[in-house]
Amino acid sequence: xxxxxGIAVVLGAVVGGxxxxxxxxxxxxxxxxxxxxxxAATGSxxxxxxxxxxxxxxxxxxxxxxSGGMGKGGYLELLTLLFxxxxxxxxxxxxxxxADIEEPAKSPIFNKHKKVLSNHHAINYLCDxxxxxxxxxxxxxxxxxLMELDAETHHHEALAPAHKISxxxxxxxxxxxxxxxxxxxxxxxxxxxxxxxxxxxxxxALVGTFMGVLMCxxxxxxxxxxxxTKVKDDGVALExxxxxxxxxxxxxAPQMAVEFGRRAIPSTDRxxxxxxxxxxxxx
Length: 283
Fold this sequence. Notes:
mainly alpha; 79% helix
């Protein structure tokens, strides 16, 4: 929603200011400039990105209009899920959760937390590391290193679309100049024409520079920044799981382990201690 509002504000400010100075919108409509700039930008993106990265870019664009992260409610669900898993391990032993982590979708514990269950990477991250704990007596510091490596690998992969889109944004002003230069070349072929014809041709050429700069700083660059922010927000769930699980393996009680996880949540979405305690009591 906010992305749509931002696009409307950018277009409204630019077009509105242009019209206030009695500009002619038809002059800005230059299909050839659009083909040159965006065709070259698309080609450069294809050259720079392997197929798997292009697939990630398409998925990231699809998520652009959604909200990043799990939100306060989702984080509360994650913390209560961790508390229930830790409590079951403490009471019944590690083997008691084996069936739950093998098929989370069929687990009575996981099925109580639909928001968490829909976050497939967070679920896989939690279950994979619980399997490690079950299969080997791993010390807390080694588990911490393993989980941090896993999270960093995912973070690096998830940021690839933002980096590639940012690269395209940086290239757009230059491609706008390319389109403008080609327009000037065409204008030189009309040097014998009247001044009004030359003026129109030069104006059309300059539209290329205008479009390249506007798309860079008004749209494509902010889109890359938006995707990067969403990736960082999505990584909060993994950080909660890592901190809580390492604390539990290190000997912390279930309540204390999830408190460590709660402290990993940014303050804007962090539930209070009392909210977490109440959520655990209800579950």
